[in-house]
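Sequence, please.
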């Protein structure tokens, strides 16, 4: 009888240890998924940031009187690039996601102004290089939207599991915090900027 008294607590302890390992491993798997999903956003953002200087340089020769607009695009691009670097160091961290979202909003707004002004320059609209860069930028914007959706889905799966019982009790003690979605503040940047040079 005395052996049974010891077996039950030992079995409960073993069960608890196994449960903790499984919970920890599952949280790590879900965290790695959303971090990988963010890295896909990061790839597309870098492509976008690489295209913008070429776009501005092409426009500069036609839009000499719009220097301030062109400088604002480059300034916004540099701020977004810096915010992206910071966010990629800790994907899901609320402050970094908010900073990236804000920087991307400013960049999209300045690009929108550039494209609106470009409509006033027929030679620029007809420039083959400008049309190609605009098409690549639009394609990249679409890829960013898809990658952002995949990231947000992965964050939702992670947060849902982490906030479910009994993980909600143990996850914070194991160092797992809530991850933040990547959302855009302004309605007009939820979709790729409309670019038309035809």
């Amino acid at each position: 009888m005395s052996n049974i008294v010891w077996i039950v607590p030992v079995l409960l302890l073993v069960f608890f240890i196994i449960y903790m390992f499984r919970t920890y491993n599952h949280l790590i798997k879900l965290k790695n998924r959303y971090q990988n999903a963010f890295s896909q956003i990061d790839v597309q953002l870098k492509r976008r940031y690489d295209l913008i200087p070429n776009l501005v340089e092409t426009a500069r020769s036609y839009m000499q009187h719009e220097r301030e607009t062109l400088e604002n695009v480059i300034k916004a691009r540099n701020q977004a690039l810096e915010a992206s670097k910071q966010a990629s160091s800790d994907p899901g961290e609320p402050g970094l996601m908010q900073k990236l979202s804000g920087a991307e909003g400013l960049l999209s707004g300045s690009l929108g102004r550039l494209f609106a002004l470009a409509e006033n320059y027929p030679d620029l609209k007809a420039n083959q290089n400008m049309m190609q860069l605009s098409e690549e930028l639009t394609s990249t914007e679409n890829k960013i939207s898809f990658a952002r959706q995949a990231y947000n889905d992965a964050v939702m799966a992670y947060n849902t599991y982490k906030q479910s019982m009994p993980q909600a009790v143990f996850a914070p003690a194991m160092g797992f915090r809530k991850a933040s979605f990547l959302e855009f503040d302004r309605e007009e940047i939820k979709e790729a900027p409309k670019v038309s040079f035809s």
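Residues 56 and 71 are 9 Å apart (CA to CA).
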